Amino acid sequence: MRARQLFIAVASITLALTACIDHRPTAVPAATAPTLTGDPSHPGATQGWVDTKLYFGLGYADKPDQGISEARWREFLDREVTPRFPDGLSVLDVYGQWQGKAQTTPERLRSKLLIIDYLDTQQNRDKVDAIRTAWKKLTGDQSVLRVTQPADVSF
After folding, report:
1. Closest by CA position to 91, among listed 107, 70, 121, 108
2. Which three-class secondary structure string do you get for the chain?
3. What pTM does this model have?
4. What confidence tens digit (pLDDT) does each residue in 54-71 have?
5. pLDDT value at position 39?
6. 108 exposed, middle or buried (CB, 10 Å; 0-12, 13-18, 19+)?
7. For 145, how many CA atoms within 13 A lie in the half-sphere containing its CB?
8. How far is CA 3 from the centre of its chain?
9. Domain annotation for the chain: domains and CATH numbers
10. 40 and 86 in contact (C-beta within 8 Å)?
11. What is the C-alpha end-to-end distance of the chain, expressed in Å?
């Protein structure tokens, strides 16, 4: 009987200790983890890069069947944006509104927010301006809001 009690005690302690062990997968140490670096578009650390956000109005929020469709937006993205910045970008769906001086109510717009991080050169700034110009030509919009800030980027 004593052996049975000893067995139960050892089994209980083993079970309790096993429950305390962290069973999550361990992270790969930073020194051996794969990284995407080694070329100018994927630097390990940057200097002189900027983060640019462009806001594109697609049409009135309360009239989703009018304005620029999702398919038309993607055509614009594929034709005007990606060839200029093939190394990567981000697009978010956003809701925007603004009210002109002569308006009594705000305009509410379905919008896209395009985020591009790049080396701050005149050539890249010109590419951003070309994207804005192409959008205004396509839609007849008066503006594409641009916000550009310095950025520390690494991959």
Report:
1. 70
2. CHHHHHHHHHHHHHHHHHHHCCCCCCCCCCCCCCCCCCECCECCCCCCEEEEEEEEEEEECCCCCCCCCHHHHHHHHHHHHCCCCCCCCEEEEEEEEECCCCCCCCEEEEEEEEEEEEECCHHHHHHHHHHHHHHHHHHCCCCCEEEEEEECCCC
3. 0.72
4. 999 999 999 988 999 999
5. 66
6. middle
7. 11
8. 63
9. 49-151 (3.30.70.120)
10. no
11. 64
Please give the radius of gyration of the chain, using alpha carbons only, rounded to the nearest integer: 27
Q: Which residues of the chain carry a pLDDT beneath 50?
A: 3-21, 23
Q: Find all residues with CB under 8 Å of 148, minimum gap 6, and list them.
A: 50, 51, 52, 53, 128
* Strands of the 145-151 sheet, one edge to the other: 90-98, 107-119, 49-60, 145-151
Residue 129 sits at the vertex; the CA angle it makes with 123 and 133, to the nearest 5 degrees, is 140
Per-residue pLDDT, 118 = 95
Q: Which residues on adjacent β-strands are paired with residue 88?
A: none
Kindly state the tokens that stand for 134: 């192409």
pLDDT number for residue 68: 94
